[in-house]
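Why show two proteins at once? Because comparison is the fastest way to build intuition. When a single record is shown, students tend to memorize it. When two are placed side by side, the eye starts asking what differs. So, the first record is below.
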Amino acid sequence: MPTVIYVSLQGDDKILRFTMDPVTGDLTPQEAMVVPGGPASIAVDPARRFLYVARRGERELSSYRIDQGSGALSMIGTVSLATDPCYISTDRKGRFVLSAYYEGRGVSIHPIGDDGAAGDPPVERLETARGAHCFQTDPSNRFAFVSHIAGRGPNEIWQFRFDERTGRVTPNTPPKVIPDQPLGPRHYCFHPSKDLTYFSNEQGCSVSAYRLDTQAGTLTALQTVSTLPEGYDGKNSCSKIQITPNGRFLYAPNRGHNSIAGFAVDAATGLLTSLGQTPSEQIPRAFSLDPDGKFLYAAGHESGRLAAYRVDGDTGVLRPLQTYPLGTRPMWVMIIKIGRG
């Protein structure tokens, strides 16, 4: 199955498409598709048939069909939004698009039609608080969480029950998890086989592990580990977070220190041990692992370049490969396998 990489360029109003060599990790440019209105966050449905793009400048959500041979995109619909979303995802069944609004102080849930296009009006529009930054359902598709950064947000994780039939959410009990320190939970990912969730902390410059109660749908803090080297006192904030498909390694970029922090994940407990930091392009806002966890690609928001790394399967250390020119303000890196196989 071909592996395709999509990179949104908010400053150039484009989405770049590359194909990836599964052995070397080399990228081959395929297309620079014009997408007006500042394309930013990207989501793909679980079957990898449809792609969704938040167009922040236009305050719109656009839907695309993915050609299963080439990865080329064809637009199938656009809906207007009340404000610009900083994050989008689909639920685990691919029936709804979930979006979080930083300045819009909340979240929305749009239905996905039989044709794969996100519909209007949303089935849910819920006010939470300023700084809402990530909105996903858990692996069971029964619960959802909304993280809010600190500083300009309340430093909270809101917990919800999710109805996968209707797309509606209701507050869980308790409705919030509040970190002991102003960590600023920004983005999160789930362990592929353990009941654990990991958050990147924007203000805390750290990663936190939480136990996920799969019956109640609630989180309990277990551990927080810094993403920075000891003694560093410069300006920094964390952005995204991702774990390898085998659950052995986890990565979170540092914006300011300009590095990718790596962690080994304990096979028994799921707790983290720092592997140190690998230098990256300037302000690594967007990054992604390939679906097999063999390569990592990180885009420099200020440099406008994409750095490729090989993931050492034994140690988790990142080995630099090549750097690719992108353009102005890369915002998202999405990597999927397409076709059947």
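Second record. Ask yourself what differs from the first in the token line.
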Amino acid sequence: MARITAGVATSHVPAIGAAQDNGKASEPYWAPLFRGYEFSKRWVEANPPDVVFLVYNDHASAFSLEVIPTFAIGCAERFVPADEGWGPRPVPAVVGHPELAAHIAQSVIQQDFDLTIVNRMDVDHGLTVPLSLMFGQPSEWPCRVIPFAVNVIQYPPPSGHRCFQLGKAIRRAINSFDEDLTVHIWGTGGMSHQLQGPRAGLINKEFDRSFLDRLVTDPDALARVPLIDYIREAGSEGIELVMWLIMRGALDSAVREVHRFYHVPASNTAVGHLILENANLDR
């Protein structure tokens, strides 16, 4: 059977991708950030997934205000980098896993979660920046990727509780897939930031660090935090953190924290990163 062995959480700041693409990763401003992912690259090389189920949010690349799915699963064989206004990132196309994606869609929908099935879409920095941070700049990505887009752009977004429960449904779906696959689930976006209005540039280190602690040790309580608290404490774009709860819901109730990194700033955002391994206590 397929099994989820680990979860990864990371911010997906577009400027990080631009720094990599333009050879600026070693510059004084960016070097401290990229050092925080050096361990992660070694870890993922030593613990390679067959498939990454990657939770992210689209930034008006695949979806517009005309159609806004709350949860959308990519079931295509291939996903190309999106042109976000300055050309596509010079990174490989993403190779999907249509069979596993279709199985997850069927299973999760039958568990009463409504998913939008997407058979063609381009993927933007929300998905490609995490891949670059973990895998570097290869000629092709070393594993298959199932994109899972969550609406945290247009009101109303899903609650943290719903995302957490969805993660549990995704885990049950993956565990019932009849093929021997090692799967990682990644939650991306965040941490605290606001891009507009009087609070533009907001960064709340205390909230961010507390969120990292609670995600590891008390995810059930964290999942009950109301959306207004994210907006108040972490800024309007801090709501992206509910996507980390999908990742956490798909893991064991007790996990091993393998790596943690927190850095301020990257562009006008706080960057957070966790690697969690299943402790196998739920088996």
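One difference worth noting in the second protein: The first strand starts at residue 3 and ends at 10.
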